[in-house]
């Protein structure tokens, strides 16, 4: 499995718009090799908000295919880029326990509308 962790800083004025845009990633449910995506907010000491999103893929090949063929159209359509102050993306190849820890982090206020499951 491949795990993608996305961390975005968003200012308070854009949290609602970012959240709405993040809830528009439902097209992932039909992408071959996609398993699950979930995320939520973590408030930082500097007053910014940090969005953390975890997506899980069957393997690197499925993820690479998505990035090359489908990611940009979804990202551009929901106009999320304009709301992000900074973004950090990390990829991990780990087993189930690591996935569970990432998806069930108690420091994150999970947003149910951000969850996408494989169709």
Structure description:
Strands 1, 2, 3, 4, 5 and 6 form a 6-stranded antiparallel beta sheet that branches. The protein is an alpha+beta fold. The chain has a single domain (2-117), classed as Alpha-Beta Plaits. Helix content is 28%, strand content 33%. It has helices spanning 15-22, 60-69, 71-77, 96-103, and strands spanning 2-10, 34-43, 49-57, 86-92, 109-110, 116-117. It contains 4 helices and 6 strands; from the N terminus they run βαββααβαββ. The model has no long low-confidence stretch (mean pLDDT 89). It starts with a strand and ends with a strand. It is globular, with a radius of gyration of 14 Å.
Comma- or semicolon-separated keywords:
alpha+beta; globular; DUF4937; YdbB; 119 residues; Alpha-Beta Plaits; 4 helices; Dimeric_a/b-barrel; 6-stranded antiparallel beta sheet
Short description:
The chain is an alpha+beta fold and 119 residues long.
List the helices and strands and how they pair.
Layout: E1 2-10, H1 15-22, E2 34-43, E3 49-57, H2 60-69, H3 71-77, E4 86-92, H4 96-103, E5 109-110, E6 116-117
Antiparallel strand pairs: 1-3, 1-4, 2-3, 2-5, 2-6
Protein name: YdbB
Pfam families: DUF4937
InterPro entries: Dimeric_a/b-barrel (IPR011008), DUF4937 (IPR032555)
């Amino acid at each position: 499995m491949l795990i993608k962790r996305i961390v975005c800083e968003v200012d308070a004025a854009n949290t609602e718009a970012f959240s709405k845009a993040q809830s528009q990633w439902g097209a992932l449910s039909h992408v071959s090799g996609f398993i699950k995506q979930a995320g939520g907010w973590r408030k930082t000491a500097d007053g910014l908000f940090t969005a953390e999103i975890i997506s899980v893929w069957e393997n690197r090949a499925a993820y690479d295919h998505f990035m090359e063929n489908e990611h940009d159209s979804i990202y551009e359509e929901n106009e999320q880029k304009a709301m992000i102050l900074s973004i950090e993306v990390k990829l991990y190849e780990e087993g189930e326990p690591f996935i569970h820890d990432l998806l069930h982090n108690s420091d994150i206020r999970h947003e149910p509308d951000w969850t996408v499951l494989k169709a």
